[in-house]
Amino acid sequence: MSDVIVLFGGSSSERLVSVASAQNVTRLLADAQPWFLSAQGAVTPVTLEELGAHQRPFEVPFAPAAAARWPSLPAALDSAEAAGKVFFLALHGGEGENGTVQLLLEQRGLGFTGSGSVASANAFDKAQAKRLAGAAGAALAEARVLTPMSEAEAERALLQLFDAHPRWVLKPQADGSSHGLVHLKSRDQVKAAATLISGLKLAYLAEVFIEGRELTVGVAEEAEGLVPLPVSEVRLVPNGAFDYAGKYLGKGTEEITPAQLTDGERAAVQALALTTHRAVGCEGYSRTDMILTASGPVLLEINTLPGLTKASFIPQQLAAAKKDLTAFLRWQLELGRRRAKR
User: Fold this and answer.
1) For residue 233, what is the domain's CATH number?
2) What does each C-alpha distance from 42 to 6, 37, 69, 73, 308 come to in angstroms?
């Protein structure tokens, strides 16, 4: 019997992506046991067949046929079924990426893939991640943190941004950027943006818009050490946006892997990804988003559990590097087992 459990689902805005990642991971790890974490926190083991048969995962929520076996993730992790297992975390955003799940696993001495609880929390807070990477030499865009506030307060705060710069990008400070992303290009857009961000009741990070090419770079921990993967570029079609629809529904973006770069540009962006991975304290693998400007790359954010769907960047980049995705997944599990022994 396999010792691998693939944990997917969760309560975050990216839980649908998590299902698609779990489908791809279990397609390659056919001996794994999928566990579904519901938005309410209950845990249900499901069969590989049930998970694989789910259609349109980016649009239709997954609902297991069986009743939940455990009322909460702590109860599931304390069960006999979890003892001695290693968890492949196919979670994105929320408790799956902010260190909450990682801390539960660490407290029980269970192995798992990806970064530990501290690094996960540091990366999930985009402002904190930028502080750590900036201290290590990463170039950063000017940014302001907007705490949760009323619609009127948000409108005043957003109008004040235009006193400093003519264009801003707004994204949740501690959540996935696919949902709630706002490109603020004029004062005419302020009212709608204020309604959105006040309604979400989330802290927001407002970053000055940086002109350049949008790139993303994976970093993988291999037997010989950290290795930067080939670079991907995201290009927007006219009126497109790198939001949920653009990233996962093929509406508005074009992805190019490997990106067409000079040797100097490639070295600079891969160096920034390595710097950020190390500065935040990541383990296993990560993916760093950045803008390549005329003077070099500028950090946007780092993802500790980037998507592993068939169309995601990490699988794209592994393929471009002629690295086998199944071997990558198996090695991540081995790193998880070694973590448990530590």
Assistant:
1) 3.30.470.20
2) 15, 6, 8, 6, 23
CATH of the domain at 87: 3.40.50.20
Counted domains in the chain: 3
**Its pTM surpasses 0.85:** yes
Question: Over its length of 342 residues, how does the chain's per-residue pLDDT go in tens digits?
Answer: 689 999 999 999 899 999 999 999 999 999 999 999 999 999 999 999 999 999 999 999 999 999 999 999 999 999 999 999 999 999 999 999 999 999 999 999 999 999 999 999 999 999 999 999 999 999 999 999 999 999 999 999 999 999 999 999 999 998 765 668 899 999 999 999 999 999 989 899 999 999 999 999 999 999 999 999 999 999 987 665 555 555 555 567 899 999 999 999 999 999 999 999 999 999 999 999 999 999 999 999 999 999 999 999 999 999 999 999 999 999 999 999 999 988
Sequence-ordered list of residues with C-beta below 8 angstroms from that of 261, at least 6 positions apart, any chain: 231, 269, 292
Let me know whether 217 and 292 are in one domain. yes
Distance between CA atoms of residues 184 and 147, nearest Å: 17
Mark whether 149 and 186 lie in a shared domain. Answer: yes
